[in-house]
């Protein structure tokens, strides 16, 4: 890993990190412990331990760190702000769902050394090319296996390493490779010999086979060979093929081969191309912002979070401003707050009637101001569930106005009475409040200022806890839940809260007083109670938005799918998880997107297939959090029922054929040194009910390193515009549940055909390089009944 460290000699920050520093690790106001931190020689690993002799040490990779925040930029550090000045404090933020590391150095200079040094290391990593990353990865393994740290590896060490790397290789074959790589004939491999050993080990027979199919002489792809491959296999646009072939040679052919001079491509260049973004299954053009952003807001699916303040479960979980920062950094564009009257006149945010911890509304608004537009400039909707009295509602309005300033949308864009939503483009950089409103937009725009005494108004009070559907209350599962929940080990007064929780399940249509100041902050997203689709069609204004629990939404979707789609062509709808999901689990968002529902709110803090689908849908269009709905869901004159996609105008079913060829460097699931995975691949289609399907390859015994399948899976897709494709790798276990190895989800419309690599993601949606699958994809028209 020479490349990351080559400039460290001249870099004082890195030098002092390598020497090491004692800093305080802070977990709370009371938990502050000294730890010795140092950067390992590889400039890739941070090592730390407590000062007590004999205590175990911990390490983490610089790769896992997403960013460094200076000063008091986390709740933990803010809570000790009076004790340690900001110039000695910093926070390391990790990728995925791992908690932050809050540190206090002994001096501002030491803090600066670590802050600047870490930023430098992160930047170096971001600038590394693919082949450097691979070398880096190989060197990390070398270090893990070089047990006696002499910078050499003998054959027994190599065998342990192969097990760690998920390779179960016949000893004879491994020994032959070892001898070939041992150029210096010392019976050990130094690091550059090990890189050679590794590359021989990972030779890609599958890619070589394709290369030789198209190569005229079996040695290289001439310009013409490569053009033919791009045209016939990769189905690149015919008029672009010549230009593209030249560019690929320029970009991926190693310059130390004579092939580049000949305007041709060697197997190495070919492999580099196939492993690059251009060789990936996701079309690069659709990864950037490519959709029309000038349509009305309700014509987009919007990445949305439920109970954003929770970091874990709904009963006793930890509430945190960090929840908002994480969701916003993942491209989320609709976040939620539950506000309650707090002490000292300050509204608080938490999950009412439970034991989740509490945070200040004010702090949420500050986080919103600081992070709303870091990854996307398109509007953020702040969905409020307001349980505050009028006094603290005024405080909420004041915080929104003073903290957000002109980021808060306070009136319609042109001051006129609109007939439909403005577009995400027109609302760039704006935060929209969704909540109750006194009267409508019309009154607030043209009505005279009301007399002083009407500074509050009455609105009907629905709240989410009341929405645990009355019908499901009578179901046994709920009785079981109730039994279970009343016996939870709550404090002595807890059971009372629980009874209260249950009695709220029968909605009392009460009235709530609303302060005019807070009401005025609501412009395009007025929360209203839903009566029926017919009622909405006749009476509703476009800016009125209703929220459904998942079960209500399912009922509407079954009884009136086409009407639901129509309703969403004119108004916004929000669907959120059932109140019974106290474990913060999620429902499948796909069935809600099938109805054109824009705001499908998920628990972002909970990993699983539902969040994979959300990440998959929103990984296109520059990850900006908005995805344009298919045109048949935006036109009021077109009819689409997700239950019968065959009836729609322009119905053209497609056939998807995927050959799963091989896997590369799949991560180990079991920590036990001796176990190696038995991987298989499942391909799932998520879309309209007719398209929901999954198929699996067989499993391969004991090989996570380079399993080969050549299994072909076929699917028919009736509504391709709505379909997502999810690739899952699992470790086959006949005795118990299969273990998850990795997954990748993308919109069907973003697939590139031909020979493609799929770069797998972990449970958390973060990348696990260099784990990948190699597949061949073909999409063809399916000539069937139905209009074409």
Automatic annotation (TrEMBL):
<feature type="domain" description="EF-hand">
    <location>
        <begin position="133"/>
        <end position="168"/>
    </location>
</feature>
<dbReference type="InterPro" id="IPR000909">
    <property type="entry name" value="PLipase_C_PInositol-sp_X_dom"/>
</dbReference>
<dbReference type="InterPro" id="IPR011992">
    <property type="entry name" value="EF-hand-dom_pair"/>
</dbReference>
<dbReference type="InterPro" id="IPR018247">
    <property type="entry name" value="EF_Hand_1_Ca_BS"/>
</dbReference>
<dbReference type="GO" id="GO:0005509">
    <property type="term" value="F:calcium ion binding"/>
</dbReference>
<dbReference type="Pfam" id="PF00169">
    <property type="entry name" value="PH"/>
</dbReference>
<dbReference type="GO" id="GO:0016042">
    <property type="term" value="P:lipid catabolic process"/>
</dbReference>
<keyword id="KW-0807">Transducer</keyword>
<feature type="domain" description="C2">
    <location>
        <begin position="634"/>
        <end position="762"/>
    </location>
</feature>
<keyword id="KW-0106">Calcium</keyword>
<keyword id="KW-0256">Endoplasmic reticulum</keyword>
<feature type="domain" description="EF-hand">
    <location>
        <begin position="169"/>
        <end position="204"/>
    </location>
</feature>
<keyword id="KW-0443">Lipid metabolism</keyword>
<feature type="region of interest" description="Disordered">
    <location>
        <begin position="442"/>
        <end position="465"/>
    </location>
</feature>
<keyword id="KW-0442">Lipid degradation</keyword>
<keyword id="KW-0539">Nucleus</keyword>
<keyword id="KW-0378">Hydrolase</keyword>
<dbReference type="InterPro" id="IPR002048">
    <property type="entry name" value="EF_hand_dom"/>
</dbReference>
<dbReference type="InterPro" id="IPR015359">
    <property type="entry name" value="PLC_EF-hand-like"/>
</dbReference>
<dbReference type="InterPro" id="IPR000008">
    <property type="entry name" value="C2_dom"/>
</dbReference>
<keyword id="KW-0472">Membrane</keyword>
<dbReference type="GO" id="GO:0005886">
    <property type="term" value="C:plasma membrane"/>
</dbReference>
<protein>
    <recommendedName>
        <fullName>Phosphoinositide phospholipase C</fullName>
        <ecNumber>3.1.4.11</ecNumber>
    </recommendedName>
</protein>
<feature type="domain" description="PI-PLC Y-box">
    <location>
        <begin position="518"/>
        <end position="634"/>
    </location>
</feature>
<dbReference type="InterPro" id="IPR001192">
    <property type="entry name" value="PI-PLC_fam"/>
</dbReference>
<dbReference type="Pfam" id="PF00388">
    <property type="entry name" value="PI-PLC-X"/>
</dbReference>
<dbReference type="Pfam" id="PF00168">
    <property type="entry name" value="C2"/>
</dbReference>
<dbReference type="Pfam" id="PF09279">
    <property type="entry name" value="EF-hand_like"/>
</dbReference>
<dbReference type="GO" id="GO:0005783">
    <property type="term" value="C:endoplasmic reticulum"/>
</dbReference>
<keyword id="KW-0677">Repeat</keyword>
<dbReference type="GO" id="GO:0005634">
    <property type="term" value="C:nucleus"/>
</dbReference>
<keyword id="KW-0963">Cytoplasm</keyword>
<dbReference type="InterPro" id="IPR035892">
    <property type="entry name" value="C2_domain_sf"/>
</dbReference>
<keyword id="KW-0479">Metal-binding</keyword>
<dbReference type="GO" id="GO:0035556">
    <property type="term" value="P:intracellular signal transduction"/>
</dbReference>
<dbReference type="InterPro" id="IPR001711">
    <property type="entry name" value="PLipase_C_Pinositol-sp_Y"/>
</dbReference>
<feature type="compositionally biased region" description="Acidic residues">
    <location>
        <begin position="450"/>
        <end position="465"/>
    </location>
</feature>
<feature type="domain" description="PH">
    <location>
        <begin position="15"/>
        <end position="123"/>
    </location>
</feature>
<dbReference type="GO" id="GO:0004435">
    <property type="term" value="F:phosphatidylinositol-4,5-bisphosphate phospholipase C activity"/>
</dbReference>
<dbReference type="Pfam" id="PF00387">
    <property type="entry name" value="PI-PLC-Y"/>
</dbReference>
<dbReference type="InterPro" id="IPR017946">
    <property type="entry name" value="PLC-like_Pdiesterase_TIM-brl"/>
</dbReference>
<dbReference type="InterPro" id="IPR011993">
    <property type="entry name" value="PH-like_dom_sf"/>
</dbReference>
């Amino acid at each position: 890993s020479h490349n990351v460290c080559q400039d460290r000699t001249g870099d004082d920050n890195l030098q002092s990190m390598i020497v090491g520093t004692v800093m305080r690790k802070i977990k709370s106001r009371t938990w502050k412990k000294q730890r010795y931190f140092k950067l390992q020689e590889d400039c890739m690993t941070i090592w730390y331990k407590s000062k007590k002799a004999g205590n175990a040490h911990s390490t983490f990779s610089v790769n896992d760190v997403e960013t460094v925040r200076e000063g008091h930029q986390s709740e933990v550090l803010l809570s000790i702000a009076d004790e340690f000045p900001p110039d000695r404090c910093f926070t390391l933020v990790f990728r995925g769902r791992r908690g932050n590391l809050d540190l206090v150095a002994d001096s501002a200079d030491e803090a600066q050394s670590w802050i600047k040094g870490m930023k430098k290391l992160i930047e170096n990593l971001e600038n590394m090319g693919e082949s450097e990353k691979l070398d880096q990865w190989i060197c990390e393994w070398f270090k893990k296996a070089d047990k006696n740290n002499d910078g050499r590896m003998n054959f027994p060490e190599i065998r342990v390493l192969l097990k760690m790397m998920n390779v179960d290789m016949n000893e004879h074959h491994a020994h032959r490779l070892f001898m070939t790589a041992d150029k210096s004939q010392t019976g050990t491999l130094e690091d550059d010999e090990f890189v050679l050993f590794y590359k021989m080990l990972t030779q890609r027979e599958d890619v070589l086979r394709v290369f030789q199919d198209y190569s005229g002489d079996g040695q290289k792809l001439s310009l013409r060979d490569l053009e033919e491959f791009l045209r016939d296999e990769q189905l690149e646009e015919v008029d672009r093929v010549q230009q593209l072939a030249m560019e690929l040679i320029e970009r991926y052919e190693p310059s130390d081969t004579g092939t580049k001079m000949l305007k041709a491509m060697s197997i190495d260049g070919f492999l580099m191309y196939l492993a690059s973004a251009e060789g990936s299954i996701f079309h690069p053009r659709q990864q950037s912002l490519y959709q029309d952003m000038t349509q009305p807001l309700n014509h987009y699916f919007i990445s949305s979070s439920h109970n954003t303040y929770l970091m874990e479960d709904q009963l006793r979980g930890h509430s945190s401003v960090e929840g908002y920062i994480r969701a916003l950094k993942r491209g989320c564009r609709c976040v939620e707050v539950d506000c309650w009257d707090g002490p000292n006149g300050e509204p608080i945010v938490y999950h009412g009637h439970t034991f989740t911890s509490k945070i200040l509304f004010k702090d949420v608004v500050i986080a919103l101001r600081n992070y709303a537009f870091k990854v996307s400039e398109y509007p953020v909707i702040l969905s409020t569930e307001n349980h505050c009295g009028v006094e603290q509602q005024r405080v909420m309005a004041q915080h929104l106005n003073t903290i957000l300033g002109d980021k808060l949308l306070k009136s319609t864009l042109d001051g006129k009475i609109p007939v439909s939503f403005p577009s995400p483009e027109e609302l760039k950089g704006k935060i929209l409040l969704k909540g109750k409103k006194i009267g409508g937009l019309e009154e607030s725009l043209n009505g005279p200022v009301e007399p002083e005494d009407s500074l509050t108004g009455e609105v009907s009070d629905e709240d989410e806890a009341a929405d645990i559907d009355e019908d499901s209350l009578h179901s046994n599962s709920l009785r079981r839940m109730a039994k279970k929940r009343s016996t939870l080990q709550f404090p002595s007064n807890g059971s009372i809260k629980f009874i209260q929780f249950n009695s709220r399940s029968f909605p009392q249509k009460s009235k709530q007083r609303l302060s005019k100041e807070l009401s005025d902050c609501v412009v395009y997203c007025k929360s209203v109670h839903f009566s029926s689709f017919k009622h909405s069609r006749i009476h509703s204004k476009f800016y009125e938005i209703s929220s459904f629990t998942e079960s209500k939404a399912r009922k509407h979707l079954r009884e009136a799918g086409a009407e639901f789609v129509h309703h969403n062509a004119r108004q916004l709808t929000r669907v959120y998880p059932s109140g019974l999901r106290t474990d913060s689990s999620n429902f499948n968002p796909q069935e809600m997107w099938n109805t054109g529902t824009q705001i499908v709110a998920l628990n972002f803090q909970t990993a699983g297939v539902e969040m994979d689908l959300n990440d998959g849908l929103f990984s296109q269009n520059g990850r900006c959090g908005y995805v344009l709905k298919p045109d048949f869901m935006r036109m009021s004159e077109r009819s689409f029922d997700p239950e019968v996609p065959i009836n729609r105008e322009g119905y053209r079913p497609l056939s998807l054929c995927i050959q799963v060829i091989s896997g590369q460097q799949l991560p180990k699931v079991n920590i036990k040194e001796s176990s190696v995975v038995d991987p298989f691949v499942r391909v799932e289609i998520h879309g309209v009910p007719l398209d929901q399907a999954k198929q699996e390859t067989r499993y391969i015994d004991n090989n996570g390193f380079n399993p080969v399948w050549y299994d072909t899976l076929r699917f028919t897709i009736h509504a391709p515009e709505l379909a997502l494709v999810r690739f899952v790798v699992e470790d086959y276990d006949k005795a118990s549940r299969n273990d998850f190895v990795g997954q990748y989800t993308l919109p069907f419309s973003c697939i590139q055909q031909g020979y493609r690599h799929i770069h797998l993601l972990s449970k958390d949606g973060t990348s696990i390089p260099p784990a990948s699958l190699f597949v061949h994809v073909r999409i063809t028209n399916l000539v069937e009944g139905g209009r074409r």
